[in-house]
Specification:
Strand order of the largest sheet of chain C: 1-2-3
Helix content of chain C: 55-70%
Distance between the termini of chain C: 90 Å
Helix content of chain B: over 70%
Strand content of chain C: under 5%
Largest sheet of chain C: 3 strands, mixed
Radius of gyration of chain B: 20 Å
Radius of gyration of chain C: 32 Å
Number of strands of chain C: 8
Number of strands of chain B: 0
Number of helices of chain C: 26
Largest sheet of chain B: none
Oligomer: heterotrimer
Chains: A mainly alpha, B mainly alpha, C mainly alpha
């Protein structure tokens, strides 16, 4: 457990040190702090005994924080949360290195807040106490808002405030649901506690109608964060206005908080409600895929395009999660990690040419492969990872999500009946085609084609005023992109260890679902039968169902 | 004649008042409450209507006294002395507040050469 | 059902893991090419790596062929595998493993062989691109070969899908190789996206197979099919062949997903030869051949394949007749010949289809490479109206005569290899008991005549007649880099008497040793590809190609399909197509009849081409003018030249509505979803705040009044409650 706290507190200490150091030193301090955090988590991962059994580790409760309310500082990982925390810790140093030349004013504050952001995200993934999770989850908004509002583009204030308020409002619902479950737990067991396992066990026993509202409430909170259609409109604006590293962490880590919340809270806690609302969420996911893909097609701003593509990709991820079978859940978790890697890398690439040309408009800028071939190679690699080319990491998640949706069929010969099915998979599969379309259009404009550079007057040169960046990538930028490229290729070729590790967690999350879906089917069948032949009511066997 | 008679008159008056005050008649207590309400309302209306800051402050003092009278009446009604104790508090607070408020009034008067409250609406939001 | 015609069970043979080198070597060469590009190494090193790697792969395949004794399954490493239970349907297994049967070896032989030759050709062809571009090209070729090997040799459908998309990636990178030309970039994008549409069908087919049979590995699938599928999804199991078919049509450029292939000619010619003629486009044929037993799941599945194949063959032939760009003509002929292959698969002769794939790979690659040599030497000129009499120019005789061999084979001149392979397909069609297959057979014969015509139109125009050549004006026929060959090259060309060079400073650049060697080797290979058929027809020996197809899933599948279609226990060995004649053609014995009709079609087409394009060249234009003049026949040349407006139809049917939809959605998202709903909700507190603003006017007494009002309200309410308490 101390390793976990080390990885969370190192960035915090780093932030404190940054506040009192010089701007030049602050870059090094923050780099060291994030590397230390990554090292701590990696050490933890090497000694993690619960890789393949879906359990948590460590399991002991932490010190009490607010004893009267039962809130404890408990931290622990299972495979899924460890993977997501590792993703965050992996991206943090890369973002820091990537921001060296991008931030020129108020440097110390930037790095300080960035470190706090990272610490908060890792805390959220590590939390075993619901309120601790909420603290981590919500606290990420503070540094993110500051990063966008101070270091962002022209409309940064609006973007930052919209993001903050929208996400905060959604989380209110989530908090209400958590407190409700804690209260129910107190009613049944007599003590206040916010331990996630205990709350889950309580919530599962609640009646169907309660679970329905519980699920809806939790979903609203997480749906804003994911973001799920139609609660997605804050994301393109936030991404567009945020500084590069802010976009990377937003896309790669903060959005995963939403999907992780589904995995940890919404799905396990309210199975009965979940099955009732499954179709609604699935339909929204599918709409998200098609809708966002089509909007991507007509975008001229490169960052907004990738932002909408995030909406589309995470729609597919959610669809896999809500397919309610291990294949879909595996695909969804794998997709979370992959999306973080490839989309984060794409944002870094965009940031690199933005630093040189100060525009992201694909109508004025294009054909950069001529001048920046190394950059172009990375861009093509990451774009194809995003498209889901087999051999790269995106394919595995995408294929398994679609496959899980497809086999979520009625008879449940896989042991996991569901309510989705081939129709959903077909429409979601159209998203595959659209994804290729808009991403290749992006490539065709920015990377390929004749060279188009924005018209600039003599007073304004290409290079950033504070440091002259070479035409193609310099060693620092290659250093940032190479680990991401290696990760993309490696995960595409050797997904096996991760797949094997995620599987028991997925099964654990879905433990209650087969029964719930069967009960749902029975209820529906009974309702249909009731409507069909009312006179035969007396002859129907009595169902001993509690609900 | 003067000192003794004054003293005798005063003690008789006090005794009378004391008798009046030790009377347990509900009507007399109600009268007392009515007087306190009257004092309060006069103060309130005066505060709302008058423009002169010193007069406005005077009206707030009237409201204080109305509340104090009500306190005493209720103390007598319930034979509980804590009402009278509270009146001492009220008088103390009123005195402190008077010092502060009149000091502010003097400063404001020096700024705008007028005691009218209408000139001071800068802190509004309209 | 399958038990009556068993597909041989694959033996697990881990000791054959060295065959995986055929998969690994191109990948290593791709990495080495990247290193060359990053380190900016000069010279032809990427080409050396690639050619060596591909040659080594070919040797590996030869060794595998020698060691072959039956279908084997060779595990290499665990790629994707997890399970959540013990049952068949409670696990997902997709290892990186190989499934090697005779069909695999048959395919890999010509894939690796042609790959090596074409890489060698490209080492000279692309020499003007030395530097990062050169490395990038060979990176693309290596990736392509890796993906194609995975497609053909993989033992499960996910590896096939990996190869499927991987060849799409290679195609994208290579078509858009000259990325500064918008036409090339657009063509690359179109190819990838159109392939993706087909890929969706393939992916859905894969999911269906998994949902119904619980496995994705070929050997287990074939055995599981015997047990019958357990339909657990909403969709009927008979949809599987249609979904697979959709994928095949996308990759192999059949109607309706064919318009990407002609545009793909924007890529360098070696790419067109390797990918879009010989190997990648045959992936669809391979898929159907491999999964042939599953096409018995629906009675009309194969008929659909046959109709699409036959129809596309005719359609593409009509378009090819009206094109002036040599590469475009060959592209349409590729689509047309692929149509024949699908026709063959549909009517039930997998031997015919696969053998035609084999012969076609050779002669089509040869034709494309000759076109490339012409382009290389004439500064990008490929318009057959501007080139003539090439065979009289010294240094170009090899090109002209190898092109002649290729054209002869394409036209299926009697007793060429292609004649036999086409014969196998058409024989099966014409002697079928289904009337629509017979119709398709006659349609195929008509198309063969058209094929012969437009093929020799090219040859008679370009290689015969008076010598005349012009370099391309702006070099926009792809390979813009070859403009540099224009001026100042003193070659033997200018010594030719009576040469009419439109630009007296321009001398064509004759091919050097690499190109010439490859052309010669390919010509020999084209002829040699016929030996299996010659062996059978003349020497009454075994037909090697047929031997390779029998004993694989393709042939066993053919037997199942026949059995399912005819439901009769007709005697005679089910030796695919060349069994005892099953009927008559025009009253004659089937073989003789087809020989006569086929020869007529082929020679007739050649003769018409000779008249219109050799003997009296003006008559072709006169014919066209006559057709255009008459209002009833005007549509024919217009449609043929405008490619039957398919591109325009797609644009109007799909792209335009989708684009409009995107604009609408974008507008709605920005102004309605974000503007009205989100911002609208945000304005509610602001409006509420404005509502209460007058309370804070700043006047002291105003505050007092509001305070009093509030207190009065509270008092009134309290009084009301108190009063109510009395009721």
């Amino acid at each position: 457990m101390s390793m976990i706290w080390t990885s969370i507190l190192m960035p915090v200490i780093g932030a404190a040190l940054v506040a009192v150091s010089s701007p030049r030193l602050s870059k090094w301090i923050s780099l060291l702090a994030t590397l230390g955090s990554l090292a701590a988590l990696t050490l933890f991962a090497f000694e993690f005994p619960a890789w393949n059994n879906g359990q948590y580790h460590p399991t002991e409760a932490g010190p009490a924080w607010l004893d009267a309310a039962g809130i404890r500082l408990s931290v622990g990982f299972d495979t899924v949360s460890l993977l997501l925390a590792l993703l965050t810790a992996f991206l943090m140093p890369l973002c820091i290195i990537g921001s060296y030349t991008a931030i020129t004013e108020r440097v110390k504050e930037y790095y300080g807040w960035f470190l706090l952001l990272g610490a908060s995200i890792i805390l959220a993934f590590a939390a075993r106490d619901a309120i601790l999770f909420y603290v981590g989850y919500e606290f990420t908004l503070v540094p993110m808002t500051i990063l966008i509002a101070v270091y962002g583009g022209t409309e940064r204030r609006v973007a930052a405030i919209k993001m903050f308020l929208y996400t905060f409002l959604g989380s209110m619902f989530m908090l209400a649901a958590i407190i409700y479950v804690a209260w129910e737990n107190r009613v049944s067991s007599g003590a206040w506690t916010f331990d996630i396992d205990t709350l889950t066990a309580t919530a599962v026993r609640l009646p169907v109608s309660t679970q329905y509202w519980l699920f809806a409430s939790l979903m609203i909170g997480f749906a804003v964060k994911v973001p799920l259609f139609p609660l997605h409109t804050w994301l393109p604006l936030a991404h567009d206005q945020a500084p590069t590293a802010g976009s990377v962490i937003l896309a790669s880590a903060m959005l995963k908080l939403g999907t992780y919340g589904n995995y940890r809270f919404a799905l396990p806690m309210a199975p009965a409600g979940g099955t009732e609302l499954m179709v609604v969420v699935a339909v929204l996911s599918i709409i998200a895929i098609i809708y966002a893909s089509l909007i991507c097609w007509v975008q001229t701003d490169a960052k907004k395009l990738i932002a909408y593509s995030s909406v589309a990709h995470l729609g597919l991820c959610m669809l896999g999660l809500f397919a309610l079978n291990p294949v879909g859940a595996e695909g969804a978790v794998f997709y979370m990690v992959n999306h973080g890697l490839s989309t984060g890398a794409l944002f870094l690439c965009i940031g690199m040419f933005y630093e040189r040309y100060h525009t992201k408009d694909t109508d004025v800028l294009g054909g950069l492969a001529r001048k920046m071939p190394v950059w172009a190679s990375f861009m093509v690699l990451f774009t194809f990872a995003s498209i889901g080319l087999p051999g790269l990491n995106g394919f595995i998640g995408e294929f398994l999500c679609l496959g899980g949706t497809f086999i979520a069929e009625h008879d449940g010969q896989s042991g996991y009946p569901g309510v989705l099915g081939p129709r959903f998979a077909v429409i979601a599969g159209l998203g595959l085609i659209f994804a290729a379309m808009y991403l290749l259009i992006l490539l065709g404009k920015i990377v390929w084609g004749p060279l188009r550079e924005p018209h600039h007057d003599s007073a304004h040169t290409h290079a950033a005023p504070h440091a002259s960046l070479p035409t193609d990538l310099n060693a620092r930028e290659i250093l940032v992109l190479t680990p991401l490229a290696v990760a993309c290729i490696w995960l595409g070729v050797q997904p096996q260890p991760m797949l094997k590790a995620i599987e028991p967690c997925a099964t654990r999350m879905l433990a209650n679902y087969p029964d719930e879906v069967r009960r749902l089917k029975e209820r529906e069948a009974q309702m249909a039968a009731d409507a069909a032949d009312a006179p035969n009511l007396a002859q129907m066997p009595q169902h001993g169902g509690v609900h | 004649m003067s000192a003794l008679s004054t003293a005798a008159l005063a003690s008789t008056a006090l005794e009378g008042i004391g008798q009046a005050f030790t009377a347990t008649s509900g009507a007399q207590l109600s009268l007392s409450l009515a007087i306190s309400a009257l004092l309060f309302v006069i103060g309130l209306v005066g505060f709302m209507v008058r423009r002169n800051m010193i007069i406005m402050f005077l009206c707030t003092e009237l409201m204080f006294q109305g509340a104090a009278l009500a306190m005493i009446t209720f103390a007598r009604m319930h034979m509980d002395v804590s009402g009278q104790v509270f009146v001492i508090f009220i008088l103390t607070v009123a005195a402190a507040e008077a010092a502060l408020a009149l000091g502010l009034v003097v400063l404001l008067h020096r700024r705008r050469e007028t005691l009218s409250a209408e000139v001071w609406s800068d802190l509004g939001e309209a | 059902m399958i038990a009556d015609f068993p597909i041989p069970q694959a033996v697990v043979a881990p000791e054959l893991a060295w065959v995986g080198l055929a998969l690994l070597l191109p990948l290593i060469s791709a990495v080495l090419c990247t290193v060359c590009a990053a380190a900016r190494l000069p010279g032809k090193l990427p080409a050396v790596f690639t050619v060596l790697a591909l040659a080594a792969s070919f040797v590996v395949i030869l060794r595998a062929y020698n060691a072959y004794s039956g279908p084997v399954q060779v595990p290499i490493f665990e790629w994707m595998s997890f399970a959540w239970g013990e049952g068949r349907f409670q696990q997902f297994t997709a290892p990186c493993a190989l499934y090697i049967d005779s069909l695999t070896l048959f395919w890999m032989l010509f894939v690796t062989g042609l790959g090596t030759l074409i890489a060698l050709y490209a080492s000279e062809y692309m020499e003007t691109e030395k530097g990062a571009g050169y490395a990038r090209f060979f990176f693309g070729i290596s990736i392509f070969l890796f993906a194609m090997s995975s497609l053909v040799m993989g033992d499960n459908l996910v590896m096939l899908y990996l190869g499927w998309e991987g060849v799409g990636l290679a195609s994208y990178l290579l078509i858009g190789f000259d990325y500064q030309r918008p036409a090339a970039v657009a063509a690359a994008k179109k190819a990838f996206i159109m392939n993706r549409v087909g890929d969706l069908g393939l992916a859905l087919g894969i999911f269906m197979l998994w949902a119904n049979y619980g496995t994705l590995q070929y050997s287990q699938l074939f055995q599981a099919m015997n047990a019958g599928g357990q339909t657990g999804v909403d969709w009927d199991v008979s949809l599987i062949p249609f979904l697979l078919m959709l994928g095949a049509f996308g990759k192999s450029a059949q109607f309706p997903l064919f318009t990407w292939l002609p545009d793909a000619m924007e890529g360098p010619t070696p790419v067109s030869a390797l990918i879009h003629a010989a190997t990648m486009v045959t992936a669809g044929v391979f898929l159907i051949a491999r999964m042939y037993p599953f096409f018995a799941l629906h009675p009309e599945a194969l008929a659909t394949v046959a109709w699409i194949g036959g129809g596309t063959a005719l359609l593409a032939a009509t378009i090819g007749m009206a094109q002036y760009d040599i590469k475009r003509v060959f592209a349409y002929s590729t689509i047309s010949q692929l149509g024949y292959m699908f026709l063959g698969l549909g009517v039930g002769t997998t031997y015919g289809a696969c053998y035609h794939t084999f012969t076609h790979a050779f002669f089509k690659a040869l034709l494309f490479l000759t076109a490339g040599a012409i382009m290389h030497g004439f500064a990008g000129q490929l318009d057959l109206r501007k080139l003539s009499g090439l065979r009289h120019i010294p240094g170009w005789r090899l090109v002209s005569w190898t092109m002649f061999i290729g054209c002869l084979w394409l036209a299926a001149f009697p007793y060429t290899a292609a004649f036999f392979s086409k014969d196998a397909i058409l024989l099966k069609a014409l002697t079928s008991t289904r009337w629509d297959f017979v119709f398709l057979g006659w349609l195929g014969l008509f198309t063969a005549a058209l094929t012969a015509y437009y093929t020799f139109r090219v040859w008679f125009r370009v290689c015969c007649g008076p010598v005349h050549f012009e370099p391309a004006a702006d070099g926009h026929h792809g390979d813009a880099s070859h403009d540099a060959h224009g001026h100042g090259n003193a070659h033997k060309a200018h010594e030719v008497k009576g040469a009419h060079a439109a630009d007296h400073g321009f001398h064509p650049h004759a091919p050097k040793w690499a190109i010439s060697t490859v052309l010669a080797l390919l010509a020999i290979g084209t002829v040699a590809a016929g030996f299996p058929a010659y062996n059978e027809a003349f020497a009454h020996g075994t037909n090697w190609a047929q031997k390779m197809i029998v004993g694989s899933s393709a042939a066993a599948g053919a037997q199942i399909v026949e059995h399912a279609a005819q439901h009769d226990t007709s005697a005679g060995d089910h030796q695919a197509a060349n069994g005892p004649s099953l009927g008559t053609v025009l009253g004659m014995d089937a073989h003789t009849g087809l020989l006569v009709v086929g020869a007529t079609a082929s020679i007739g087409g050649i003769l018409i081409a000779a008249y219109l394009h050799l003997l009296s060249r003006g008559s072709a234009d006169a014919l066209r003018r006559a057709l255009m003049g008459n209002v009833f026949t005007r549509w024919l040349p217009v449609c043929m030249e405008r490619k039957w407006f398919v591109d325009e139809i797609y644009h109007g049917l799909f792209r335009l509505p989708l684009w409009l939809g995107s604009q609408v959605l974008h507008f709605g998202d920005k102004h309605f979803l974000d503007g009205v709903l989100v911002d609208g909700i945000a304005r509610v507190p602001i409006a509420a705040g404005k509502l209460f603003r007058p309370l804070y006017g700043g006047a002291l007494q105003g505050y007092a009044i509001s305070m009093v009002a509030g207190v009065a309200l509270v008092l009134a309410w309290m009084t009301w409650v108190w009063l109510r308490g009395f009721e």
